[in-house]
Amino acid sequence: MFNDQSCSFVAVSGSSNLTIPRAKFIVGDCVYWFRVPSQDFGAVVDCCYGTEGSVQALGWHYLIQLDPHSPSFAHCKSDWGFEADLAILDSENDENALESDSD
What we know:
The protein has about 100 residues and is mainly beta. The protein contains 1 helix and 6 strands. Helices cover about 10% and strands about 30% of the residues. Strand 2 and strand 3 form a beta hairpin.
């Protein structure tokens, strides 16, 4: 286990010498996508360290359960986010997200 809250590393052939950095977020953290216009938000429910992928190969990937007030919640209840695309949802961000949802 590389983090205190259910984050995991799945070994891939040839990756045994890989140094795994500490995960930036833990299960339960409220985060949002700051690089996309919709800025969906929710809670981290799982995370894994990936060494391969179709878009971004190396790094932490987080499974986010979207908040019911998140813009995409009507058609997407959860989504995966790359660590570089996510930020902690603090009280100021939370208020802005809820205000934009009520418009």
